[in-house]
Design brief:
This protein has about 325 residues and is α+β, with helices and mostly antiparallel strands. It folds into 2 domains: about 220 residues, 3-Layer(aba) Sandwich (Rossmann fold), CATH 3.40.50; about 100 residues, no CATH class. About 25% of the residues lie in helices and about 35% in strands. The chain is built from 8 helices and 19 strands. Strands 6-7-8-3-9-10 form a 6-stranded mixed β-sheet, with helices on both faces. Strands 13-12-11-14-19 form a 5-stranded antiparallel β-sheet, with no helix packed on it. It has a 4-stranded antiparallel β-sheet with strand order 2-1-4-5, covered by helices on one side. The longest helix has 18 residues. The protein starts with a strand and ends with a strand. Bound molecules: adenosine-5'-triphosphate (ATP). Adenosine-5'-triphosphate (ATP) binds next to helix 1. The site of adenosine-5'-triphosphate (ATP) has 11 residues, from helix 1. InterPro entries: AAA+_ATPase, ABC_SmlMolc_Importer, ABC_transporter-like_ATP-bd, ABC_transporter-like_CS, Mo/tungstate-bd_C_term_dom, P-loop_NTPase. Its EC number is 7.3.2.6.
């Protein structure tokens, strides 16, 4: 397996400029996450060799592959729309790359069988793509990408065309297969939950730049910017004035260690609800197994989410005021 590196890579189009430095470790599952148009696909296509950068280098295991064509790079790639050959059986679709490489018949059969088992499609090799569900078609695409035993697996929104249940199942299968093979993987998605569920690390992209890169929980609980905080989930962001290293809001005290304007950040589940009078309840929602409370403290809205057993009241008896404690917080850049 190999590492993948983008060094000072840039690509410019009318009204858009991509600038990335990125290092994907050997055997790592790295996700490029960001809103539509931020440059995820372009970054992936540059790694694949489907797009040439205007400047910068692409390295596989320290070797410069910038000038190599995609078929010279030993990559497997899976797209959103499966891109299977409709007139070929599952077997033929998966075998295609091996036949192009003129492998012996027996070797092709052995490898296709292995790939079919890997993606859980054994027995379906004689079907045509139109006889398969979307999820099965995407498994074929995955098998086809893996059968050539690539050093790097690239996946561009592979689950976007599938419905929610299949999406969840297939994402954990992709992760299982990736772990089993230990293959260096770059995965593109705009879905934060998907990114959190599968990745070793996530690179959050915003207008052509990587805004922050880190492990899922690090990004989730310690985002550096408001963009990353909001993109990864429901956020509480309080703009406060700190004095003597402490920012105060009602009875809440945040030891921030600096003075002046600060942006205090915490997730809804970091807010503990107690019996008390700190905050006015302005609304609430019952969610599966938990309750979301909308609270007001001196004109600032705070969203809290607690599992039902952790509430000091019955879900159908929400009091007008509650006590709150913020268990952990971090500071965002101003
Ligand atoms: N071949 C091209 N010619 C001109 N502009 C392009 C080309 N490919 C991409 N772009 C532009 O580059 C920007 C980034 O596109 P890209 O597809 O990388 O974003 P993305 O984050 O993958 O978005 P999405 O999730 O919508 O696919 C967009 O503004 C897009 O219009």
């Amino acid at each position: 397996m190999v590492s993948v590196e983008l060094r000072n890579v840039s690509k410019r189009w009318d009204g858009f400029e991509l600038r990335v430095d990125l290092s994907v470790k050997d055997g790592e599952f790295l996700t490029l996450l960001g809103p539509s148009g931020c440059g995820k696909t372009t970054t992936l296509r540059i790694i694949a060799g489907l797009e040439k950068p205007d400047s910068g280098r692409v390295l596989f295991d320290g070797t410069d592959v910038t000038d190599l064509e995609p078929n010279e790079r030993n990559i497997g790639i899976v797209f959103q729309d499966y891109a299977l050959f409709p007139h070929m059986t599952v077997f033929k679709n998966i075998a295609f790359g091996l036949e192009m490489r003129k492998l012996p018949r027996g070797e092709i059969e052995r490898r296709v069988k292995w790939a079919l088992e890997l993606v859980g499609l054994s027995g379906l090799e004689n079907r045509y793509p139109e006889q398969l569900s979307g999820g099965q078609q995407q498994r074929v695409a995955l098998a086809r990408a893996l059968v050539i035993e690539p050093e790097v697996l690239l996946l561009d929104e592979p689950l976007s065309n599938l419905d929610a249940k299949i999406r969840e199942r297939l994402r954990s299968e992709i992760r299982r297969i990736q772990r089993e093979l230990g293959i260096t993987t770059v995965y593109v998605t705009h879905d934060q939950e998907e990114a959190m569920a599968v990745s070793d690390r996530i690179a959050v992209m915003n207008v052509g730049r990587i805004e922050q890169i880190g492990e899922p929980l690090e990004l989730y609980y310690k985002p550096r910017t408001e963009f990353v905080a909001r993109f990864l989930g429901t956020s509480n962001i309080l703009e406060l004035e700190a004095e003597n290293g402490v920012a105060r809001l009602g009875n809440l005290e945040f030891s921030v260690g600096v003075d002046g304007k600060v942006k205090v950040f915490f997730r809804p589940e970091s807010v503990l609800i107690t019996e008390g009078e700190d905050a006015t309840v302005t609304g609430y929602e019952l969610l599966p197994g938990r309750m979301r409370l909308y609270l007001d403290v001196e004109g600032h809205t705070i969203i809290a989410e607690r599992p039902l057993p952790d509430l000091p009241f019955e879900p159908n008896r929400v009091p007008p005021r509650v006590g709150i404690l913020v268990r952990s917080f971090s500071l965002l850049s101003l």
